[in-house]
Amino acid sequence: MARIRTGKDGSRKDVIVKAAAALFHEKGYKAASMRDLAESVGVEAASLYNHIRSKTELLHDICFNVANLFWEHISKVETSDAKPIEKLETLLRFHIRQMIENFQEVYISDREWRYLADPYLSNFQNQRRNYRKRFAVIIEQGIADGEINKIDASTAVLIVLHAVSGIESWHRSKHKISGEELEENMITILIDGLKK
Hints:
The chain is mostly helical. It is about 70% helix and about 0% strand.
């Protein structure tokens, strides 16, 4: 029987989760089957259940792994001594890099989370809502400090995050600029647009 091949630092479950993200991105969560997933990792479908319980568990792991990564990052940014505009740039660069380097996982977390079952669905929605509030607080601090134009912070967060999710188009482009160039262009447009 074939075995799931792992890298130096990864587990078999890590390989399965990564393959699931790619498959969910390609076919959509609903249309992807465990048979498809087994084929993509090179094992029989029954063998997958030695490492995972269900397709639902995979979606949960992808969504919460990404959400927790962003949650940990914003916690570090909030407690730094940087000015609000610098904190915003740090957050944005992190979002952009995640969309470039871990695109499929971030895409699934951003688009397919609605298929989570409760209580996980409610928890995930609360985490998303609270993350955006924390992001908005940094913008409000920048407005109060005179670094950022007087705007509605919640709207600014939605616009900025929507712009970052647009990196999906960059992945599909046949004539794309480098990831580094994309990051710098986005920072110039988004941060300079907020600066007073």
